[in-house]
Amino acid sequence: MSNKAKFSSKLGLVAATVGSAVGLGNIWRFPAEVQSNGGAAFLLVYILCVLVLGIPLMLAEFSLGRGTQADAVGAFKVLSPKSKWWLTGALGVLASYMILSFYTVVAGWTLDYLWQSITGDLYASSNGSGGATSAMNLYFHHKMEQYVCTTWPPLINTFIIIGICIAVLMAGVQKGIERMSTWLMPLLFVILVVFCCEALSFDKAGEGLSYFFTPDFSKITPSVIVNALGQAFFSLSLGMGCLITYGSYFPRSTKLMKTAVTVSMLDMLVAVMMGVIIFPAVFSFGLSDAELRGTTLVFVTLPEVFSMMPATGLWSVLFFTLLLVAALTSAISIGEVSIAFVQDRFGKSRRMATLIVTLPLFALSTLCSLSFGVLSDFKIAGLTIFNLLDTVTSNYMLPTGALLICIFTGWFAPKGFFRKELTPSLGRDRRIYWAVEFIVRWIAPVLILIVLLSSII
Ligand code: PHE
User: Which among 100, 207, 215 is positioned nearest to 161, based on CA atoms?
Assistant: First the structure.
């Protein structure tokens, strides 16, 4: 039952965990959330959510994994064998599977956009639009819509992504996940720094930055807090046992506090850097607010910005490489939750577990991909399959998972378990432990419950 695989170095461990955290959530979702939730006010609440709730919850997940050396379901079985708490892990495994089926589709689009940037197809006839911003926006909108509605190209790209995930996941924790992240994460940061430098040189960079960094406190409403908390959890990969699984690969000597702070800070840094890139660009190129939403931002607005910059192709290739790296390392961590579960619970080899998990994924991802095309009229509760999976997981399953993980770690895990896991990393300073425990027991459950209730009502 015990999970023997371990990350081999501190750097690899941090790279893999940051690789899980930094994903489409930071690059695609975060700037759109900032824009639709009052700019800098959202940023402020988001940072508070990461510091006050995100880090303690991450510590709870790390502790459950490292302390039990088991997968997301096994961790609860080890600590509370006769109870039904293992269902919390099962909810996480289910959520991870559902997220993976649409995450791979978006990663597939990224792959296609990267390819089209390399060949130049993405910009081939954009000049025909006359260079006017609105015409250009229409052109990229149309291109995106046409692309996602077709059957085969998005599907083939999704399958390629699943294929890459299979290859990395089969190679295992050290030779697959850790090695891949150790190579790709530095690349991601280098590309981000290059983009930041370029964005700061735009003529209206100052206006963009002041929109992003000067909070208007009157804009902090309950819904801004709810969205900021949801964004923080999604971005830090919390609530579905992903970090329980990764925690089980941490050696005993890992300092959990230091790791949680490092991972959270780097994840937040990537989100902030994305803001520093996007907002100066939006202000400088005179794009409207409406052009900043969700899917549109990355696949429509940014190509529009690139087409107005010199060296269009180069920036485009760099950006979609960045997005692909972020999406792949996160997709792999999401897949690992189910693979560790099948491997540990059913005693399967890694190869077998990877196949068992990924083969049905082809079918589910196909449904998600087709929900933009031939299945676009097939709706459940008014949502397409893609949107349904996205909404149910992010808005309900992840917060529920996070709530249960807090309650379990704070109240039901064996007495002293959490403290024993944390103590080596806190040294003699007991106050930090008390603060973390207080948050996990009281503050986080109450806040998450409020968030959940407000999204249900
Ligand atoms: N944190 C990832 C992102 O920002 C998504 C993710 C969620 C990964 C949950 C693992 C678990 O895109």
Answer: 100
* pLDDT higher than 60, residue 131: no
Model confidence pTM above 0.90: yes
Q: Which of 17-21, 34-38, 190-194, 216-220 has the lowest mean pLDDT?
A: 34-38
**Nearest-atom index, ligand 1, CA of 331:** 8
Taking CA atoms, 454 is separated from 66, 294, 411, 448, in Å, by 33, 22, 24, 10
Asked whether the beta carbons of 104 and 158 are under 8 A apart, the reply is: yes
The SS3 assignment for 346 reads: helix
Q: Which of 58, 231, 234, 323 to mutate to test the pocket of ligand 1 (most atoms within 8 A of CB)?
A: 234
Segment 383-406, tens digit of pLDDT: 999 989 988 998 889 999 999 999
Quote the CA–CA distance of 35 and 191 in Å, as a whole number.
23
Ligand 1 atom nearest to CA at 326: 12
Ligand 1 mean position, distance from CA 82 (Å): 31
41-63 average pLDDT score: 96
Quick check: 406 and 60 in contact, CB under 8 A? yes
Predicted confidence (pLDDT) per residue in 169-182, tens digit: 999 999 999 999 99
Shortest CA distance to 109 belongs to which of 64, 159, 164? 159
Between CA 120 and CA 136 the distance in angstroms is 16
How far does the centroid of ligand 1 lie from the alpha carbon of residue 26, in Å? 9
Give residues with Cβ within 8 angstroms of 304, minimum separation 6: 133, 136, 137, 140, 285, 287, 291
Q: What distance in angstroms lies between residue 324's CA and the mean position of ligand 1's atoms?
A: 14
